Amino acid sequence: MRIALIIPSRAYHGTPGYADFPDELLSVAGTLERSGHQITCADYNVNPDPDHDKIAAFNPGIAVFYVGTGPEIADAAARSQSLKKAIVNVKIVWIGCHPTVFPNQTLHEEFVDFIVIGCAEKPVNELASCIEQGKDFSAIRGLGFKGTSAATAVNPPDANIDPDGLPDPAWHLADVRRYPDVNLNTARGGLYACTFFSDSAGDAGKTVTPSRLARQMQDLARNHGVKSVYLSGVGLTGNPDNLRRFCQALIGLGLKLPWRLPVSRELDDETARLMAKAGCTSVLLDVGSGSPRLRDFIGKGDISAVERTFHRLVRRRIVPTLYVNYDYPGETEPDFKATLDLIRRLDYPPCLLLKFIPYPGTDLYEYCRRESLIQIPETLESWSDFAADCMRRSFSQVSRELLNSTLANYRKSYAARRVRFMLRHNPVYFISVISRPREFYRRLKELVSYWLGIVSEKRKSG
Protein backbone atom coordinates (compact mmCIF):
# COMPACT_ATOMS: atom_id res chain seq x y z
CA MET A 1 0.00 0.00 0.00
CA ARG A 2 1.11 3.57 -0.67
CA ILE A 3 1.30 5.57 2.55
CA ALA A 4 2.20 9.25 2.95
CA LEU A 5 3.69 10.50 6.22
CA ILE A 6 3.28 14.23 6.75
CA ILE A 7 4.63 16.90 9.12
CA PRO A 8 2.28 19.92 8.79
CA SER A 9 3.61 23.47 8.81
CA ARG A 10 4.12 25.18 12.17
CA ALA A 11 4.14 28.65 10.57
CA TYR A 12 1.98 31.16 12.42
CA HIS A 13 0.90 34.60 11.20
CA GLY A 14 4.02 35.23 9.16
CA THR A 15 6.46 33.50 11.51
CA PRO A 16 8.05 30.55 9.65
CA GLY A 17 7.58 27.07 11.06
CA TYR A 18 10.60 25.59 12.81
CA ALA A 19 12.12 22.39 11.43
CA ASP A 20 12.17 19.66 14.08
CA PHE A 21 13.70 16.34 13.05
CA PRO A 22 10.78 13.89 12.49
CA ASP A 23 12.17 10.97 14.48
CA GLU A 24 8.72 9.71 15.55
CA LEU A 25 7.40 9.71 12.00
CA LEU A 26 10.55 8.09 10.59
CA SER A 27 10.15 5.32 13.18
CA VAL A 28 6.63 4.72 11.86
CA ALA A 29 8.08 4.71 8.33
CA GLY A 30 10.65 2.08 9.27
CA THR A 31 7.94 -0.25 10.57
CA LEU A 32 5.77 0.26 7.49
CA GLU A 33 8.69 -0.33 5.11
CA ARG A 34 9.52 -3.59 6.88
CA SER A 35 5.96 -4.73 6.12
CA GLY A 36 6.42 -3.96 2.42
CA HIS A 37 4.49 -0.69 2.14
CA GLN A 38 5.63 2.13 -0.16
CA ILE A 39 6.35 5.29 1.83
CA THR A 40 6.83 8.95 1.04
CA CYS A 41 7.47 11.68 3.61
CA ALA A 42 6.77 15.41 3.46
CA ASP A 43 7.81 18.03 6.02
CA TYR A 44 6.12 21.34 5.21
CA ASN A 45 8.51 23.19 7.51
CA VAL A 46 11.53 22.50 5.28
CA ASN A 47 9.86 22.29 1.86
CA PRO A 48 6.48 24.03 2.08
CA ASP A 49 5.05 23.99 -1.46
CA PRO A 50 6.39 21.27 -3.79
CA ASP A 51 5.65 18.51 -1.27
CA HIS A 52 1.90 19.03 -1.62
CA ASP A 53 2.01 18.17 -5.32
CA LYS A 54 4.30 15.24 -4.50
CA ILE A 55 1.78 13.77 -2.06
CA ALA A 56 -1.13 14.10 -4.49
CA ALA A 57 0.92 12.53 -7.29
CA PHE A 58 1.93 9.66 -4.99
CA ASN A 59 -1.79 8.83 -4.63
CA PRO A 60 -1.62 7.29 -1.12
CA GLY A 61 -4.25 5.01 0.32
CA ILE A 62 -3.41 6.37 3.79
CA ALA A 63 -2.07 9.79 4.79
CA VAL A 64 -0.63 10.01 8.31
CA PHE A 65 -0.27 13.46 9.91
CA TYR A 66 1.97 13.99 12.95
CA VAL A 67 0.23 16.73 14.94
CA GLY A 68 1.18 18.52 18.14
CA THR A 69 -0.76 21.23 19.93
CA GLY A 70 -0.08 24.44 18.05
CA PRO A 71 -0.25 26.16 14.65
CA GLU A 72 0.28 22.85 12.83
CA ILE A 73 -3.31 21.88 13.65
CA ALA A 74 -4.72 24.42 11.18
CA ASP A 75 -2.30 23.33 8.46
CA ALA A 76 -2.97 19.63 9.10
CA ALA A 77 -6.72 20.27 8.92
CA ALA A 78 -6.43 22.17 5.63
CA ARG A 79 -4.18 19.54 4.05
CA SER A 80 -6.35 16.69 5.29
CA GLN A 81 -9.41 18.26 3.67
CA SER A 82 -7.48 18.92 0.46
CA LEU A 83 -6.31 15.31 0.22
CA LYS A 84 -9.84 14.07 0.89
CA LYS A 85 -11.04 16.07 -2.12
CA ALA A 86 -8.12 15.13 -4.38
CA ILE A 87 -7.84 11.38 -3.68
CA VAL A 88 -10.82 9.07 -3.67
CA ASN A 89 -11.06 6.83 -0.58
CA VAL A 90 -7.86 8.09 1.04
CA LYS A 91 -7.87 7.47 4.80
CA ILE A 92 -6.58 10.26 7.04
CA VAL A 93 -4.81 9.27 10.27
CA TRP A 94 -3.66 11.78 12.91
CA ILE A 95 -0.93 10.74 15.34
CA GLY A 96 1.11 12.71 17.88
CA CYS A 97 0.46 14.37 21.20
CA HIS A 98 -2.66 16.36 20.29
CA PRO A 99 -4.82 13.43 19.13
CA THR A 100 -3.37 11.43 22.02
CA VAL A 101 -4.74 13.93 24.55
CA PHE A 102 -7.93 14.85 22.66
CA PRO A 103 -8.89 11.74 20.65
CA ASN A 104 -12.65 12.26 20.55
CA GLN A 105 -12.52 15.94 19.60
CA THR A 106 -10.07 15.09 16.80
CA LEU A 107 -12.21 12.23 15.51
CA HIS A 108 -15.27 14.49 15.52
CA GLU A 109 -13.89 16.21 12.42
CA GLU A 110 -15.18 14.86 9.13
CA PHE A 111 -11.72 14.92 7.54
CA VAL A 112 -10.10 12.67 10.19
CA ASP A 113 -10.81 8.95 9.84
CA PHE A 114 -8.48 7.54 12.53
CA ILE A 115 -6.29 8.68 15.40
CA VAL A 116 -3.60 6.88 17.35
CA ILE A 117 -2.92 7.27 21.06
CA GLY A 118 0.76 7.26 21.98
CA CYS A 119 3.32 5.15 20.15
CA ALA A 120 2.08 4.86 16.56
CA GLU A 121 4.35 2.30 14.86
CA LYS A 122 2.33 -0.81 15.60
CA PRO A 123 -1.22 0.65 15.32
CA VAL A 124 -0.53 2.36 11.97
CA ASN A 125 1.13 -0.77 10.59
CA GLU A 126 -1.76 -2.99 11.68
CA LEU A 127 -4.31 -0.51 10.33
CA ALA A 128 -2.58 -0.45 6.93
CA SER A 129 -2.67 -4.24 6.74
CA CYS A 130 -6.35 -4.35 7.72
CA ILE A 131 -7.36 -1.73 5.14
CA GLU A 132 -5.28 -3.39 2.43
CA GLN A 133 -6.77 -6.82 3.14
CA GLY A 134 -10.30 -5.64 3.93
CA LYS A 135 -10.14 -6.92 7.51
CA ASP A 136 -11.69 -5.62 10.72
CA PHE A 137 -9.54 -3.02 12.50
CA SER A 138 -11.74 -2.42 15.54
CA ALA A 139 -9.52 -4.39 17.95
CA ILE A 140 -6.25 -2.59 17.19
CA ARG A 141 -4.74 -1.30 20.43
CA GLY A 142 -4.24 2.47 20.58
CA LEU A 143 -6.50 3.11 17.57
CA GLY A 144 -9.40 5.55 17.57
CA PHE A 145 -12.05 5.40 14.86
CA LYS A 146 -15.63 6.28 14.00
CA GLY A 147 -18.40 3.79 14.54
CA THR A 148 -21.43 3.23 12.36
CA SER A 149 -23.27 6.00 14.23
CA ALA A 150 -21.98 9.39 15.31
CA ALA A 151 -20.13 7.76 18.22
CA THR A 152 -16.37 7.29 18.26
CA ALA A 153 -14.36 4.42 19.71
CA VAL A 154 -10.87 4.72 21.20
CA ASN A 155 -8.99 1.58 22.19
CA PRO A 156 -6.45 1.73 25.03
CA PRO A 157 -2.83 1.64 23.85
CA ASP A 158 -0.64 -1.44 24.04
CA ALA A 159 1.45 -1.20 27.22
CA ASN A 160 3.76 -4.06 26.24
CA ILE A 161 5.55 -2.68 23.19
CA ASP A 162 9.19 -3.76 23.03
CA PRO A 163 11.19 -0.84 21.54
CA ASP A 164 13.98 -3.21 20.52
CA GLY A 165 11.47 -5.18 18.47
CA LEU A 166 10.91 -2.13 16.24
CA PRO A 167 13.13 -1.57 13.21
CA ASP A 168 15.41 1.44 13.00
CA PRO A 169 13.77 4.66 11.80
CA ALA A 170 13.77 5.14 8.01
CA TRP A 171 16.45 7.84 8.16
CA HIS A 172 16.99 7.63 4.40
CA LEU A 173 13.62 9.37 3.91
CA ALA A 174 14.83 12.61 5.56
CA ASP A 175 17.40 15.09 4.32
CA VAL A 176 19.40 15.44 7.54
CA ARG A 177 21.07 18.60 6.23
CA ARG A 178 17.77 20.47 6.52
CA TYR A 179 17.54 20.06 10.30
CA PRO A 180 19.58 21.78 13.04
CA ASP A 181 19.78 18.52 14.98
CA VAL A 182 19.14 14.86 14.30
CA ASN A 183 17.05 13.40 17.13
CA LEU A 184 17.41 9.84 18.36
CA ASN A 185 14.60 8.70 20.63
CA THR A 186 15.82 6.79 23.69
CA ALA A 187 12.42 5.41 24.76
CA ARG A 188 9.39 4.12 22.85
CA GLY A 189 5.92 2.89 23.66
CA GLY A 190 4.67 5.54 26.08
CA LEU A 191 2.21 8.39 25.77
CA TYR A 192 3.61 11.66 24.52
CA ALA A 193 4.85 14.40 26.81
CA CYS A 194 3.71 17.37 24.78
CA THR A 195 6.32 19.86 25.85
CA PHE A 196 9.93 19.51 26.85
CA PHE A 197 10.44 18.84 30.57
CA SER A 198 6.77 19.32 31.42
CA ASP A 199 5.28 16.87 33.86
CA SER A 200 3.37 14.54 31.61
CA ALA A 201 0.41 12.60 32.87
CA GLY A 202 1.43 9.74 30.55
CA ASP A 203 3.93 6.91 30.63
CA ALA A 204 7.44 7.75 29.39
CA GLY A 205 7.68 4.41 27.61
CA LYS A 206 10.35 1.72 27.61
CA THR A 207 14.03 2.32 27.08
CA VAL A 208 15.82 1.34 23.91
CA THR A 209 18.82 -0.74 25.03
CA PRO A 210 22.01 1.33 25.37
CA SER A 211 23.99 -0.91 23.01
CA ARG A 212 21.37 -0.47 20.28
CA LEU A 213 21.36 3.30 20.71
CA ALA A 214 25.14 3.30 20.29
CA ARG A 215 24.87 1.19 17.14
CA GLN A 216 22.19 3.52 15.75
CA MET A 217 24.49 6.49 16.31
CA GLN A 218 27.24 4.67 14.45
CA ASP A 219 24.85 4.02 11.56
CA LEU A 220 23.80 7.69 11.45
CA ALA A 221 27.42 8.82 11.33
CA ARG A 222 28.65 6.28 8.78
CA ASN A 223 25.72 5.99 6.41
CA HIS A 224 23.73 9.22 6.70
CA GLY A 225 26.34 11.94 7.13
CA VAL A 226 25.12 12.98 10.58
CA LYS A 227 27.55 15.28 12.43
CA SER A 228 25.84 15.44 15.83
CA VAL A 229 22.91 13.81 17.60
CA TYR A 230 20.36 14.96 20.18
CA LEU A 231 19.18 12.05 22.36
CA SER A 232 15.55 12.82 23.17
CA GLY A 233 13.30 11.18 25.74
CA VAL A 234 14.07 9.90 29.22
CA GLY A 235 15.45 6.49 28.27
CA LEU A 236 18.96 7.43 29.44
CA THR A 237 18.62 10.22 32.00
CA GLY A 238 15.68 8.47 33.62
CA ASN A 239 18.07 5.62 34.45
CA PRO A 240 21.71 6.59 35.17
CA ASP A 241 22.81 2.96 34.80
CA ASN A 242 21.53 3.00 31.22
CA LEU A 243 23.36 6.26 30.57
CA ARG A 244 26.64 4.79 31.82
CA ARG A 245 26.17 1.62 29.73
CA PHE A 246 25.43 3.77 26.69
CA CYS A 247 28.64 5.76 27.22
CA GLN A 248 30.65 2.56 27.61
CA ALA A 249 29.13 1.18 24.39
CA LEU A 250 30.10 4.34 22.47
CA ILE A 251 33.62 4.21 23.89
CA GLY A 252 33.88 0.55 22.87
CA LEU A 253 32.86 1.43 19.30
CA GLY A 254 35.44 4.21 19.16
CA LEU A 255 32.76 6.51 17.74
CA LYS A 256 33.72 10.21 17.58
CA LEU A 257 30.27 11.73 17.13
CA PRO A 258 29.26 14.73 19.29
CA TRP A 259 25.98 14.27 21.12
CA ARG A 260 23.66 16.10 23.50
CA LEU A 261 20.78 15.09 25.73
CA PRO A 262 18.30 16.48 28.27
CA VAL A 263 19.16 16.01 31.95
CA SER A 264 16.40 16.11 34.55
CA ARG A 265 18.03 14.40 37.54
CA GLU A 266 21.33 14.49 39.42
CA LEU A 267 24.37 12.96 37.73
CA ASP A 268 27.39 11.83 39.73
CA ASP A 269 30.98 12.64 38.78
CA GLU A 270 31.71 9.19 37.33
CA THR A 271 28.73 9.50 34.98
CA ALA A 272 29.87 12.97 33.90
CA ARG A 273 33.37 11.59 33.26
CA LEU A 274 32.03 8.78 31.08
CA MET A 275 29.77 11.19 29.19
CA ALA A 276 32.71 13.44 28.34
CA LYS A 277 34.86 10.49 27.25
CA ALA A 278 32.02 9.17 25.07
CA GLY A 279 31.64 12.45 23.17
CA CYS A 280 28.91 14.36 25.02
CA THR A 281 29.46 18.06 24.29
CA SER A 282 26.47 19.67 25.99
CA VAL A 283 23.28 18.98 27.90
CA LEU A 284 19.96 20.72 28.32
CA LEU A 285 19.69 20.94 32.10
CA ASP A 286 16.16 20.94 33.48
CA VAL A 287 15.90 23.81 35.97
CA GLY A 288 12.34 25.08 35.66
CA SER A 289 12.74 27.55 38.51
CA GLY A 290 15.39 28.52 41.04
CA SER A 291 12.80 28.99 43.79
CA PRO A 292 12.63 26.08 46.29
CA ARG A 293 8.97 26.87 46.97
CA LEU A 294 8.04 26.88 43.30
CA ARG A 295 10.18 23.84 42.52
CA ASP A 296 8.26 21.94 45.16
CA PHE A 297 4.98 23.03 43.53
CA ILE A 298 6.04 21.87 40.04
CA GLY A 299 7.71 18.69 41.31
CA LYS A 300 11.32 19.53 40.40
CA GLY A 301 13.04 18.59 43.66
CA ASP A 302 16.07 20.05 45.44
CA ILE A 303 17.80 22.91 43.62
CA SER A 304 21.15 21.91 45.12
CA ALA A 305 21.07 18.73 43.00
CA VAL A 306 20.86 20.91 39.89
CA GLU A 307 23.85 22.97 41.03
CA ARG A 308 25.95 19.90 41.84
CA THR A 309 25.21 18.38 38.44
CA PHE A 310 25.98 21.70 36.73
CA HIS A 311 29.43 21.98 38.31
CA ARG A 312 30.28 18.32 37.61
CA LEU A 313 29.45 18.82 33.95
CA VAL A 314 31.42 22.06 33.68
CA ARG A 315 34.48 20.40 35.21
CA ARG A 316 34.30 17.81 32.42
CA ARG A 317 33.94 20.55 29.80
CA ILE A 318 30.38 19.54 28.98
CA VAL A 319 28.38 22.71 28.35
CA PRO A 320 25.15 22.83 30.41
CA THR A 321 22.39 24.98 28.91
CA LEU A 322 19.82 25.84 31.56
CA TYR A 323 16.18 25.26 30.63
CA VAL A 324 14.23 27.84 32.65
CA ASN A 325 10.60 28.90 32.56
CA TYR A 326 9.07 32.07 33.94
CA ASP A 327 5.46 33.10 34.62
CA TYR A 328 4.48 29.86 36.35
CA PRO A 329 1.04 29.87 38.02
CA GLY A 330 1.43 31.44 41.45
CA GLU A 331 5.03 32.54 40.84
CA THR A 332 5.88 35.55 43.00
CA GLU A 333 8.55 38.19 42.53
CA PRO A 334 10.75 36.53 45.22
CA ASP A 335 10.37 33.24 43.27
CA PHE A 336 11.40 34.93 40.03
CA LYS A 337 14.33 36.69 41.68
CA ALA A 338 15.47 33.34 43.12
CA THR A 339 15.69 32.04 39.54
CA LEU A 340 17.72 35.07 38.45
CA ASP A 341 19.97 34.61 41.48
CA LEU A 342 20.57 30.96 40.50
CA ILE A 343 21.62 32.02 37.00
CA ARG A 344 23.99 34.59 38.54
CA ARG A 345 25.47 32.02 40.97
CA LEU A 346 26.20 29.72 38.04
CA ASP A 347 28.08 32.58 36.31
CA TYR A 348 25.49 33.28 33.61
CA PRO A 349 25.79 30.06 31.57
CA PRO A 350 23.93 29.45 28.29
CA CYS A 351 20.25 29.61 29.20
CA LEU A 352 16.88 29.14 27.56
CA LEU A 353 14.55 31.53 29.40
CA LEU A 354 11.07 30.77 28.10
CA LYS A 355 7.55 31.74 29.10
CA PHE A 356 5.53 28.97 30.70
CA ILE A 357 2.90 27.43 28.43
CA PRO A 358 0.50 24.85 29.96
CA TYR A 359 0.54 22.28 27.17
CA PRO A 360 -2.20 19.62 27.21
CA GLY A 361 -1.22 16.27 28.64
CA THR A 362 0.77 17.75 31.51
CA ASP A 363 -0.03 18.08 35.20
CA LEU A 364 0.34 21.87 35.04
CA TYR A 365 -2.19 22.04 32.21
CA GLU A 366 -4.68 20.19 34.41
CA TYR A 367 -3.95 22.59 37.26
CA CYS A 368 -4.54 25.62 35.03
CA ARG A 369 -7.74 24.10 33.70
CA ARG A 370 -9.08 23.38 37.19
CA GLU A 371 -8.22 26.89 38.36
CA SER A 372 -9.77 28.47 35.23
CA LEU A 373 -6.46 30.11 34.32
CA ILE A 374 -6.78 29.21 30.64
CA GLN A 375 -9.51 29.28 28.04
CA ILE A 376 -10.07 25.81 26.62
CA PRO A 377 -10.65 25.88 22.84
CA GLU A 378 -14.04 24.49 21.85
CA THR A 379 -13.04 23.23 18.39
CA LEU A 380 -10.07 21.34 17.02
CA GLU A 381 -8.81 24.12 14.75
CA SER A 382 -9.05 26.77 17.48
CA TRP A 383 -6.23 24.92 19.29
CA SER A 384 -3.92 26.48 16.68
CA ASP A 385 -4.12 29.73 18.66
CA PHE A 386 -3.78 28.17 22.11
CA ALA A 387 -0.05 28.81 22.62
CA ALA A 388 -0.32 32.37 21.30
CA ASP A 389 -3.24 33.02 23.65
CA CYS A 390 -1.20 31.69 26.58
CA MET A 391 1.70 33.94 25.58
CA ARG A 392 -0.59 36.93 26.10
CA ARG A 393 -1.79 35.74 29.51
CA SER A 394 -0.08 36.38 32.83
CA PHE A 395 -0.10 33.31 35.06
CA SER A 396 2.21 34.65 37.76
CA GLN A 397 2.23 37.52 40.26
CA VAL A 398 5.46 38.94 38.81
CA SER A 399 5.05 42.52 37.62
CA ARG A 400 5.14 43.22 33.91
CA GLU A 401 7.83 45.85 34.53
CA LEU A 402 10.19 43.34 36.16
CA LEU A 403 9.58 40.75 33.45
CA ASN A 404 10.09 43.22 30.61
CA SER A 405 13.30 44.67 32.03
CA THR A 406 14.71 41.19 32.72
CA LEU A 407 13.88 39.90 29.25
CA ALA A 408 15.26 43.03 27.58
CA ASN A 409 18.56 42.58 29.41
CA TYR A 410 18.55 38.86 28.57
CA ARG A 411 18.09 39.49 24.86
CA LYS A 412 20.74 42.19 24.79
CA SER A 413 23.40 40.26 26.69
CA TYR A 414 22.71 36.64 25.69
CA ALA A 415 25.48 36.23 23.12
CA ALA A 416 28.08 38.18 25.12
CA ARG A 417 27.38 36.23 28.31
CA ARG A 418 27.61 32.93 26.47
CA VAL A 419 31.01 33.83 24.99
CA ARG A 420 32.22 35.07 28.38
CA PHE A 421 31.10 31.85 30.10
CA MET A 422 32.89 29.69 27.53
CA LEU A 423 36.08 31.74 27.80
CA ARG A 424 36.11 31.35 31.58
CA HIS A 425 35.01 27.73 31.88
CA ASN A 426 35.76 25.99 28.58
CA PRO A 427 38.26 27.98 26.49
CA VAL A 428 39.22 24.84 24.57
CA TYR A 429 35.84 25.19 22.85
CA PHE A 430 37.20 28.04 20.75
CA ILE A 431 39.87 25.81 19.25
CA SER A 432 36.99 24.51 17.13
CA VAL A 433 37.26 27.70 15.09
CA ILE A 434 40.51 26.25 13.73
CA SER A 435 40.13 22.49 14.08
CA ARG A 436 36.40 22.17 13.25
CA PRO A 437 35.32 25.37 11.49
CA ARG A 438 32.20 23.79 9.99
CA GLU A 439 31.00 22.66 13.43
CA PHE A 440 31.80 26.09 14.91
CA TYR A 441 29.78 27.95 12.28
CA ARG A 442 26.93 25.48 12.64
CA ARG A 443 26.76 26.31 16.34
CA LEU A 444 27.04 30.02 15.55
CA LYS A 445 24.10 29.68 13.17
CA GLU A 446 22.10 27.96 15.92
CA LEU A 447 22.91 30.85 18.28
CA VAL A 448 21.69 33.43 15.76
CA SER A 449 18.57 31.37 15.03
CA TYR A 450 17.82 31.09 18.74
CA TRP A 451 18.25 34.85 19.22
CA LEU A 452 15.83 35.48 16.34
CA GLY A 453 13.43 33.05 18.02
CA ILE A 454 13.55 35.11 21.20
CA VAL A 455 12.73 38.26 19.24
CA SER A 456 9.86 36.45 17.52
CA GLU A 457 8.52 35.28 20.90
CA LYS A 458 8.60 38.85 22.20
CA ARG A 459 6.72 40.11 19.13
CA LYS A 460 4.00 37.50 19.48
CA SER A 461 3.59 38.02 23.22
CA GLY A 462 3.42 41.80 22.96
From TrEMBL:
Name the record gives this protein: Radical SAM protein
Annotated Radical SAM core domain residues: 176-393
GO cellular component: cytosol
Gene3D superfamilies, alphabetized: Cobalamin-binding domain, tm_1862 like domain
Keywords: Iron, Iron-sulfur, Metal-binding, S-adenosyl-L-methionine
Source domain of life: Bacteria
Lineage: Bacteria, Bacillati, Chloroflexota, Dehalococcoidia, Dehalococcoidales
UniProt keyword Hydrolase present: no
Record's keyword annotation contains Ribosomal protein: no
